[in-house]
Sequence to fold (547 residues):
Amino acid sequence: MLEIKNLSKSFNAGTCNEIKIFSDFNLVIKEECTGILGTNGCGKSTLFNIISGVVMPEKGDIILNGKCINKFKENDRAKYIGRVFQNPSMGVSPSLTILENISLADKKCQRFTFKNLIRKNKVGEYKELLKALDLGLENKLNTKVKFLSGGQRQSLSLLMAAMNKPELLLLDEHTAALDPKTSRLIMEKTQELIKTRSITTMMISHNVKDAIKYSDRIVMIDGGKVILDVKSKDITEKELTGIYNSRNYGSPIAEAV
Amino acid sequence: MNTLILTSIEQGLIFAVLAIGVMITFKILDFADMSVEGTFPLGAFVFARFITQGVDPVTSTLAAFLFGSLAGLTTYILNIKLKIKALLSGILTMTILYSVNLRLNGKSNVALFEYSSIFDGVQVVVVLIIIAVAVKILMDIFLKTEIGYLLIATGDNETLVKSLGENSNKYKLIGLMLSNGLVALSGAMMAQYQGFAEITMGTGIIVVAIASVIVGDTILKNANLKNTTRAITGALAYKFIGAVAIDLGIDPTDLRAINAIIVIAFLSYNTFGPEMSKIKKRNRLEGAQC
Fold:
C-alpha cells in the first residue's frame, strides 16, 4: 500500500515563474493496478518522480507499506520500487546483451562484487522468463539490446523492473511509444505480471480504453488535485472520455503564482 | 625501415596502455576527460621523483599509477561533488597538474638516463608487450565482473544503474581513477623509454589517445573483438601511420597537425564512408542499366 500525505511541490519557487504542481495532495493506493490519468502538465510524471526519489518535494510524506521513504535516495528506493518509462531505452543498457541486462536486473539491490556477472546455471531460468513474453527473445540472449525493436526493448524493461518483485511498480505511459499491436501485447503481459506476482501498480496512461480495461481503479489528477477516483468497472469509456475532454489541455498545470 | 617498425611497435605499445585508459572514460563512460593531458606527464614526473630518490623502478612505476588515479579522483570531485561540467572539470585538473608536475621535481625537464628503469637488462619490446598484454587481460577480466558491467551500464544509462539500487557516481569514480591511473602508467613508461620526463609531453596526448581508440574501432569495425584489443590495435596502427608520415619526409614540426588530420580522416570515414560506398554502388548499378 502506498500513502501520499500532504504533498506540496512547486517548481522555480520564489521566482516570477513559480509553478505550483501539488499543494496538500493526498492519495492512497491499495489496488493491484491503479490507472493515473490527467492532461499534459497536470503533474502525473512529477508525482512518479517524487515517489521514486528523482524529485524532492517541499513537504509531505511518501509511505510505502508502513515505511516512510522520504529520506531515501533514488537508488535506495529502487529496492522497493520498479519503474518503466515511456522511452523503451530508459530501462535497459543498450550496449549490453539481453543476457547481460537480465543478469544485472537479477542482482538488483544486492551487493555487486568482483565476481563474474554471467552465471551459466541461471541461463535456463532467464530463458523461461523471456519465453513468457512471447517475443522470441529467449533465442536472442547474446544480441545487444540496441538491436531490438522498441516493443522488445520495452518488454525487457518491464521484465527487468518487475524481476525482484518490487512493492510498487510505476508504469509511466509505458506503451505510448509502441504500435497498437505491440502495445496491446505489452499491456497483456503487464497485467499477467502484476496479477501473478500481485504487485501494487500505478499506471500513467492517456489511453482511456486501456486504463479502464487493465486497471482496477481510475484516478484522474488535475490542477494538483484528484478530480476523479472511481473503480474501473463503475465508469464507461464514454464517460471517462467526456471528463477528459472537459479539461483544458495544457492549462490545468497549476496557475502561475 | 626495421628500426622504424620496431620504434612504432614500442611506442605503439606504450600508447596502447594510454588508449585503454582513455577508452574507459571516452568510450565506456562517455566522459570527455581532458585531465589526461596533465596525468600523462604526471606519471612521468612521479616516476622521476621516486626513482631519483632511490626507489626501485617497478615501485616508482606503480606509484605513477597510484598518483594518476588520484588525479582521476580530483576530476570526479570537481564534476560530481562540485557539479562542474565534465569537460571543464578535466581542464581544471589538467591546469592544476601543470603546476603539480613542475613542483614534483622543481624543474620542467628531468633527465633519467643515469637511473635504472623497468627495461634494464631485458629487451624493451618484450617488457612493453608483457605490460600491454597484462593491462589488457586484467581489464577484460574486470569488465566481465558485476562491477565492470555496472561501469559499462553507467556510461550507457545512469537511470538503469540507479534503478538497480546502485549509486552511479561510484562507478564514475572507479572509471575515472582507473583511466587516469593507466594514463599515468603509460606516462611513466614513456619517461623511462625516452630517458627523460618533460612538462610538454602531455600536450596533444588526448588526441593521440582518442585517435588510437577511433582508428582501432574503424579498422576493426566488423570484427567481433573486445574494446581493449581494438584500443591496442588502434594505438599500434596509429603510431605506424605517424612513423610512415615522418619516413616520407614530413617535418616533425608538423606532426601534431598530421596527428589531428589522421583523426579527422578516420572520423569522416566513419561518418561518410558508408554513404560514399552507397553512392558508388548506385552509380555502378545505374551504369550497368545504361
The longest helix of chain B spans residues 255-289. The radius of gyration of chain B is 20 Å. Chain B touches chain A at residues 142, 144-150, 152-153, 156-157, 159-168 (CB under 8 Å). Strands of chain B lie at 109-111, 196-198.
